[in-house]
Predict the structure.
Amino acid sequence: MKVLLIEDEKQLADSIVSYLEGEGYNCEIATDFNSADDKVQVYDYDCVLLDITLPGGNGLDVLYHLKKRKPDASVIIISAKNSVDDKIRGLDLGADDYIVKPFHLSELNARLKSVIRRRNFAGSNEIVFNEIKVDTNSMIVTIKGEPVVLTKKEYDLLLFFMSNSNRVITRESIAEHLWGEEMDGIDSFDFIYSHIKNLRKKIMEKGGADYIQTVYGMGYKFIKK
């Protein structure tokens, strides 16, 4: 899962990113209004953690621009301001949740998981796709009741496919989702083929169907048979 943290307090940002990456998230950081606004216009994220007070502008304006581009984007506002007006405006603009500093990182993680579940998987901790079952809390994947050992990238790729079943997903979208802005300027996506090949093999070795379809010239589709 890819998360954008918009936060100008370096110590807090570093601690949040360190914690969330330890929980398996792929994190990017923006530390001011302009960089934050640029990122939400260019990249897609599973959730944006948004501070209101930013150098160069107001975080709520970033939220407004994001929602104009992508109305379904998930956003949690994090702010030192415990202002009812800020909270109401943020929620009116489409934020999913609001957490006030200081907060426990475990609470932020719980809220983050909850928002992503609501957006992608109807609020469930357990995702079932025919014979494939994923427990998003424990990050355990089973096929026909048998556990499957996946790498972190394979697990993220499987969730990405499952949350976008029956849609064509470009190689560029997959690369951006798994590696974020690190993929800018990459000419070859052969490494994506390797991850998809390994994921397909592990699913089928456990008796699962071959759900990953190549759409030539476009990308891939995870088909529910």
In short: Residues 10 and 31 are 8 Å apart (CA to CA). The mean pLDDT is 88. The domain at 2-121 is CATH 3.40.50.2300 (Rossmann fold).
